[in-house]
Amino acid sequence: MTNRSAWAEVSSENIEKNIRIIQKQVGEGVKVCAVVKADAYGHGLSGFVDTLSKRKFTEIAAVGKFRELIKVFAEVNPSEMDILLLGAAASDEIALALDKGEIVSRRSIFSIYNTDMLRRLDKVAEFAKVTLRVHIRIDIWDSGMGLSPKEFLDKQDMIMAMPHLDVCGLYTHLYSAYSGDLDEIGSELKRFDDMVRLITPAYREKLCIHALNSALIFSFPQYAYDMVRAGTAIYGLPCGENTGLKTLMRICAQVFDVSEVDAGIPLSYINKNDNSRKKRRIARIMLGYWDLPLLLTQKEVRVWIKGRLYMLADDVCMDNLCIDVSGDDDIRVGDKAVLFGEEGVMDTDILDRNGIDYVHGEWMCMTADRLEKIYI
């Protein structure tokens, strides 16, 4: 570890445990696609993909943005993993990346949202003299986030016959997934399933079908098809009750100063000391809202040190925060402070204290690039 002031520890062992739990839930033969968009949910995109690849935890991962796809190949270049781009990419940027050698065509899979995108990508592939692999996105509600079931069925012959594309997958994403309305979710999955059953059998054999994200894996495993997309589930973040998933990350910092501070002395940009106490014992760590922009701008921030929870002494600064450890003389310079990943500062603890629904649980792991990720 090069930075001993603040860092994030990521457990490779728990990555494997969570993938095994997911695999057991959906059954053997179903692929587990690791969703690594948004910097692997704050866990570090390159480090996470490198771990998945080297330890052969899965054969496919999914990114959200085209720049993430380029970053994976630039910094990791996994030789035995496919990378699925879930977001839309412009044909000209794909063409430029192919020309510059920034992506590996045989390992890249592109999402297609409409037939115009399909035709444009086919022209890109023809010009680049490669075959590009694609997954067709289906939009149950026909809102523009994919082809409608009817459009796909009506045009499946044309879609599957594109001369320079390998149409190898088809998927949907349900925005109702976190609603808790199991009847509505079940109805939408049934509509998708009805379409799948009408796909020409020869085409169905070529397609990797996937519909379930983390919120649905444990509720509707009967719709696992050929693959499931696991984001929050892989990271051990809330996606249902009693799943057995393990949190991967501990966000840590080392106490660099412990001092008795008089009342009235500012500890932050905005001094909130009400002078009601003459002195406070303050422990400082070099970690601020620039490192954890959402976690440290919430109310009720707690810090774990030596098995006890402490409140902040004042507002968080960009680069450091002050912890009120008054009454505990055993807190010393060099002690480890944990803001996420220990008892009292687990995901559910933080969500409950701030009244946040578990659907937004991934914000807790949003970290800046400068916060070093250590895979253990």
The shape is elongated
Number of strands: 16
Q: From the alpha-carbon coordinates, what is the Rg to the nearest angstrom?
A: 24 Å
CATH topology of the largest domain: TIM Barrel
Secondary-structure-based class equals alpha/beta
Contiguous low-pLDDT stretches (5 residues minimum) are none
Q: For this structure, what is the CATH homologous superfamily of the largest domain?
A: Alanine racemase
Overall pLDDT level: 93
Report the sheet-strand fraction.
Answer: 15-25%
What does this structure look like?
- With 376 residues, the protein is α/β, with parallel strands linked by helices.
- The chain has two domains: 12-230, Alanine racemase (TIM Barrel), CATH 3.20.20.10; 249-268 and 275-375, Beta Barrel (Lyase, Ornithine Decarboxylase, Chain A, domain 1), CATH 2.40.37.10.
- The protein has eleven helices and 16 strands.
- The chain has helices spanning 12-26, 37-41, 45-54, 66-75, 91-100, 115-128, 149-160, 182-197, 201-206, 214-217, 347-354, and strands spanning 6-10, 31-35, 60-63, 82-85, 108-112, 132-138, 165-172, 208-210, 227-230, 249-262, 279-285, 302-305, 308-311, 321-324, 336-340, 372-375.
- Strands 1, 10, 11, 12, 13, 14, 15 and 16 form an eight-stranded mixed β-sheet that branches. Strands 8-7-6-5-4-3-2-9 form an eight-stranded parallel β-sheet.
- α7 (149-160) links the parallel β6 (132-138) and β7.
- α5 (91-100) runs parallel beside α6.
- The chain is elongated and about 80 Å long.
